[in-house]
């Protein structure tokens, strides 16, 4: 899956955000972010292959000029 988020970057430290995004790469346990369904879900580990914060033009239907994306 690929996720993209668009936001107004006014006043944000994009360099620090890009550094933090790199720290999300790798395999992590996301059980604290999931609805607990112990009968059906037994593995909460997911791998993030790529994560970046970059300046980009937003699609015409989204206001803002910056994007964060994650591929996992």
Strand-helix topology:
Elements lengths: L1 E6 L6 H10 L2 E4 L15 E4 L1 E6 L10 E6 L1
Antiparallel strand pairs: 1-5, 2-3, 4-5
Regions with little confidence, pLDDT below 50 for 5+ residues: none
Number of helices: 1
Overall geometry:
elongated
The average pLDDT is 79
Side by side, the strands of the main sheet go: 1-5-4
Which value, in Å, is the CA radius of gyration?
A: 15 Å
Please give a structural write-up.
- By secondary structure, the protein is mainly β.
- The protein is built from one helix and five strands; from the N terminus they run E-H-E-E-E-E.
- The chain has one helix at residues 14-23, and strands at 2-7, 26-29, 45-48, 50-55, 66-71.
- The mean pLDDT is 79.
Characteristics:
three-stranded antiparallel sheet; 72 residues; mainly beta; two-stranded antiparallel sheet; 1 helix; 14% helix
């Amino acid at each position: 899956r690929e996720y993209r988020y668009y936001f107004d970057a006014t006043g944000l430290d994009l360099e620090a955000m890009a550094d933090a995004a790199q720290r999300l790469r790798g395999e992590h346990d996301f059980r604290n972010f999931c609805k607990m369904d112990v009968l059906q879900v037994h593995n909460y580990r997911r791998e993030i292959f790529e994560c970046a914060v970059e300046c980009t033009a937003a699609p015409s239907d989204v206001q803002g000029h910056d994007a964060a994306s994650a591929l996992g």
